[in-house]
Amino acid sequence: MTANVTMYTTAICPYCIRAERLLASKGIDNIDKIRVDLDPTQRQLMMQKTGRRTVPQIYVGDTHVGGFDDLYALDQAGRLDPLLQG
Q1: How far is CA 28 from CA 6, 13, 22, 44, in A?
Q2: Cβ(84)–Cβ(3) under 8 Å?
Q3: Phi-psi bin for 27: left (phi > 0), alpha (psi -120 to 50), beta?
Q4: Which of 3, 8, 5, 86 is nearest to 50 (CA)?
Q5: What is the pLDDT of residues 27-64, one digit of tens each?
């Protein structure tokens, strides 16, 4: 059982693509993507929840991981796999 992954994203976002690739390499291919460029309400919600304006903003389950750099650092520290296992 893997955790649900939610990612706030936009149409053109190189860091979003890198995050997707990293997650795909971990076997996560079903990411719930929320397009903040199409829905300003979702951007406001994202900013309220995370305190950040930039995308991607990634959640694994209920845990706010942060952006791509945070996701990558978590992986390098060996803490991403256990989080993804739920």
Answers
A1: 11, 19, 9, 27
A2: yes
A3: left
A4: 8
A5: 998 999 999 999 999 999 999 999 999 999 999 999 99
